[in-house]
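In this supplementary section we document a worked example of the pipeline. Step one takes a protein sequence of length 256 as its only input; no multiple sequence alignment statistics are reported here. Step two produces a three-dimensional model, which step three serialises into structure tokens for compact storage. The input and output of this example are shown verbatim.
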Amino acid sequence: MPVEVTWWGHATCTIEESGVRLLTDPLFARRLAHLRRRRGALPPPEAAVADAVLVSHLHADHLHVPSLARLAPGTRLIAPAGASRAVPGLGRLGLSITEVRAGDTVEVGALRVRAVPARHDGRRLPVGPHRSPALGYVVEGGARTYFAGDTGLFDGMADAVGPVDVALLPVGGWGPRLGLGHLDAGRAAQALAALGALSAVPVHYGTYWPIGMDGVRPHEFHAPGEEFVRHAARLAPKAAVHRLGHGESVRLEAGQ
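The serialised model returned by step three reads:
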């Protein structure tokens, strides 16, 4: 059964398989705090159509309440444990919230969604009293599609994630430096090699950039996707990398 992946920008993707639409970390804003969208048009209304939404962690560029408010009432939201308590606005959106930890599984139509660990600070920033784990998700149907959210490399990553066919991997960020718990293009290629996926889509780059910093290391904004292609060719030569433009889709079969 083929899986279709659409990249809307940043960590926002639609994963469609077996007639089920999943949306990851929706961010539909032109501006978020000190960030503004510097590339790609805002996603169209159909980007907010989903059977379920996967939220990887509570940072505002991944759990963005105004963007979640665009979802139809009753849409299922799968989020890290403690999300409702840490982000009170979630409870006012009329969504069906399922909170999970690594190892939990959720059925969405014909698909099985498995939460897996991530190496990232998952709390609601700047600093909140409640902590929630950062997660990735493996969507299992005819194909196994891994959405990493935000993560760094960690020991046992391949075992924790398990076998996957398609990997949606973060390769950059939204500023001139990446903090701990992130993948750059080189480390993302290392992750791809460890996971053994035969298809990869780079995400989390080339969309948002701090206001007033356009001239500060612009290479970090533009280049991660191309760098990932180059590193993956060396470290994971059997994998096909699909570097999508904003709003573009790719249709993949398991094993491709």
